[in-house]
Amino acid sequence: MPPNFLFLIADDHRHDAIGSLGNPAVATPHLDGLAADGCALTSAYIMGSTSNAVCMPSRAMLLTGQSLFRVFGPNPGGVSPYPMHPAAPTFPQLLRGAGYRTYGVGKWHNEPQVFARSFGGGARIFFGGMSDHRAVPLHDVDPSGAYPPEAARAGRGFSTELFAEAAARLLHEHPAGQPFCLYAAFTAPHDPRTPPPEFAARYPPDDVELPPNVAAVHPFDNGHLHGRDESLAAHPRNPAEVRRHIADYYGMVSHLDAQVGQVLHALETSGHADDTIVVYTADHGLALGQHGLLGKQNLYDHSIRVPLIVRGPGIPAGQRRRGLCYLHDLFPTLLDLAGVDAPPTEGRSLVPMLHGRAPQGRAQVFAAFQGAQVLEPGQAWMRMVRRGEVKLIQTRAAGARHTQLFDLARDPWETTNLADDPQHAARLAAMRQALREAMAAAGDPLAGAD
User: Fold this and answer.
1) Cα 381 vs. chain centroid, distance in angstroms?
2) Cα angle at 304 between 85 and 331, to 5 degrees?
């Protein structure tokens, strides 16, 4: 029988906010254990966003394997500003067609009809982007696929616990003899960052160490300095307020980790563990004061790099892979592991990387950010390419162009801009050419723009 899949995805979980993967200040014993028993891909990127709600295109790309400028379809009648392309199947949909029992739990920030064609079962479904963690509007599975908003009911309890309980119950209820794919999507550690008191108490704000790239203000206007996310703290940033935001974030992450532990325990006690591949990841990261920013509407690593851990039968244990990859590479990866033919997409199977046959991964990754799918004249945009350890960010905002060039091997916090250094002129020219080529390959409507 092919392997089962337990797919766990968080919201706003930064790539380095896991104890064993870069930040011992945050306690994540269950995720640490998952990484110890599996393979962690430590340079996984999202391709950015064409919406201030970064999670929406990020999850759409992950689910379909399509890239940023090809993942959304036409918008007849204006029903949804970001309709997933109707011709693009999701990986749960394809697994379902191959005989898997598919379950969906938690956050689904895309269209209900796509959920309906992807999952045959599930529980506690949230069709939205964010909410009070103690009053999440939840749906039961609707066989009609309609999911009218008025049918939702407020969950009783903290969102992370509600979703973990539902996932655990489905694991115990699933019968032997049929493979399953359980997709459990948490809203944590997204704001409002209100961890339960016992988890908040673990992180006194005065004890939080600020990262070296925390700044009072961003070095230039990137066009998104006063959006919703950036308005959650005062301008200029106050170190004490930033410490409080980080402390609350760590509390949310540790609480999430505890609930991931409950789901993994249910996997063990249900008898499915030996046959199940577990994936843990997130839809994007978060700035939390780094570079003077608070949100994720940017192209620094703190916002577009995500954790990615894979554990299960046939996956090497205790391994780290530093090669470049995309989050949407998981689409062909899961189908590859299941022995299901994947339709052509821009994702590439990570199975060779997981097994150490191609540890270098992709030669480069590209990302874009803009606050709308179709840019009006004068609207801000950002583009990024990383090749090896060199990274270029190009920003056009408020009538000015800004170029940033970073050597991540020497400057992982992205604090030293080398773009104006004559010693790096040849490197800058090469990266600009790489960016132009990446934009054209991605179908970027700004390809060819200066």
Assistant:
1) 20
2) 40
Taking 70 as the pLDDT cut, the residues of the chain under it are 74-81, 450
Q: Cα separation of 375 and 296, whole Å?
A: 19
Q: Where are the domains of the chain?
A: 4-362, 365-441
Residue 192 has a CB neighbour count (10 Å cut-off) of: 12
Sign, Cα dihedral of 396, 397, 400, 405: negative
Class of domain 365-441: alpha beta
CB atoms within 10 A of CB 229: 21
What tokens appear for 36 in the block? 């110890």
pLDDT at site 448: 83
pLDDT score, position 359: 82
* CATH 3.40.720.10 for domain 4-362: yes
CA distance 290 to 302: 8
Region of residue 356 (phi > 0: left; psi between -120 and 50: alpha; otherwise: beta): left
Pairing of strands 319-321, 39-41: parallel
CB atoms within 10 A of CB 22: 15
Q: What is the pLDDT of residue 77?
A: 47
pLDDT reported for residue 80: 59
